[in-house]
Amino acid sequence: MSANALESRDFRLLFAGSVLVSFVMPMQFLTQVFWVQERYPEREVLFIGLLGASRGSAMILFGLVGGALADRMERRRLLIATQMAALAINGAIAGLMLAEPFGAANVAVLLALTFAAAANMAVDQPARQAATPAIVGMAAVPSAIALQMVAQQVTFPLALPLVGFLNGRLEAGQVYAMTLLAWAGVLPLLFALRFRSRGQGAAGAGVVRNVLEGLRYTRAEPTIFAVIVLVLAIQLLGMPGPASLGPSWMRNVLGLSETQFGFMAMTWGLGTMAASLFYWKRNDLPGRGLTLWAGGAGFGLCALVFAYSRLVPLTALANFGLGFMLVTTMVSSSTITQQRVEEAMRGRVMGLFPLAMGLAMLAAFPVGAAAQATSMETVFPVMAWATLAAVAGAMALQPGLRREAPRTA
Q: Helical H runs in 137-257?
């Protein structure tokens, strides 16, 4: 088995901060949704959709820039800077929700601040990922990636009931302000870090040139390129249906009540949590190409079952599988990329992952428009088959990827 990342003092500090941030992020998003629903009931669908679009567009625009910065700067300082910026931006959002100083323009300011917060996160993520090998050593990278996924997936279901409870008793602005307390823990943890990891990119060149160099490097490396194509296939084709339009599918196609939908949605969360814990215990598996191939193919097959099933138990099983296979794909793709990429390009290549997430957020709009024009029963199977075909195509790009094995140096 690979080394345990928790043996590293600096990783324990970084992990604790990630747990705090992962806990408050869904609370902040849902509190924004509640605020919009209360203030703009006649346009809530439009404005909530724009909130998602602002996040997605920021991650697309700044994911590659964040990767370039991670390859130009000292990564510990960059992490401190992004989290200080996160506190300032989220503080401004809390102030806006509490004071509402701009009248009818409040929602426009909220969208701008949400864009800024997502852009800041898109800079933070590549720096965090690029610094991981320097903190734990290459042998413990699979363990570190799995633990970071645990931080995201375990805290999410814990945060949901709390945010509902708080918003039922307090104003949305008050709840959002309470989330700022997380940075009272995050910032001291970051300042206590001792590691140093300076990007080896060409700081003398412009950021745009750095970004283009990263894209050329990714395209020229067959294994890394195949991994990124597979990730894009899952995010662009596989996620918009079950993830973005899943609530409408549950209500309109399966006829579930709101309570039944809650239990159905929980099966996805259980799948992601189970996978996160599994790969934490079996951290020798994510660095294998066969694991990545199985995760991508498994996601496509589960999407097919989800699209054709009209039986609630079978759909619940498919939903669990989608969550499990998504984590399998993300943990494996990150691990293989970390093990393959050159240090000088690490930040820029890892910056492609938030870019893929941003594209998935924006893809929900055209997929939803197609479903509105035809039907979800028509669009979902098409997207599922396209996902499976794209995964097969990614593996065909680099057949040797299935034989990829963990690297420890």
A: 141-167, 172-179, 183-191, 207-220, 222-233, 246-252
Up-side HSE of residue 196: CA atoms within 13 Å toward CB? Answer: 1
pTM score above 0.70 = yes
99, burial (CB in 10 Å: exposed 0-12, middle 13-18, buried 19+): exposed
Candidates 360, 359, 339; CA nearest to 350 is 339
Residues near 249 by Cβ (< 8 Å), separated by ≥ 6?
241, 242, 376, 380
Alpha-carbon span 24 to 176, nearest angstrom: 9
Angle, CA of 183, 188 and 189, to the nearest 5°: 95
Count helices and strands (H / E) in the chain: 16, 0
Nearest to 135 by CA among 270, 18, 268: 18
Nearest to 179 by CA among 11, 15, 30: 30
Query: What is the C-alpha to C-alpha distance for residues 380 and 369, in angstroms, rounded to an integer?
Result: 12
- pLDDT tens string for the chain (409 positions)? 457 888 999 999 999 999 999 889 988 988 898 898 888 888 876 787 788 788 888 988 888 898 899 988 899 999 999 999 999 999 999 999 999 999 889 999 999 999 999 999 999 999 998 999 999 988 888 888 888 888 877 777 777 778 878 888 899 999 999 999 999 999 999 999 999 887 666 666 678 888 888 899 999 998 899 999 999 999 889 988 887 777 778 878 888 876 676 677 778 878 988 998 898 888 888 888 899 999 999 999 999 999 999 999 999 999 999 999 999 999 999 999 998 898 888 898 988 888 888 888 788 778 877 887 888 899 899 999 999 999 988 888 788 777 777 765 5
Rounded CA-CA distance 271/318 in Å is 10
For residues 286 and 279, what is the distance between their CA atoms, to the nearest angstrom?
A: 7
Say if CB 356 and CB 67 are below 8 A apart.
no
101, two tokens: 């100083």
- Contacts of residue 389, defined as CB under 8 A and 6 or more positions apart, other chains included, come to none
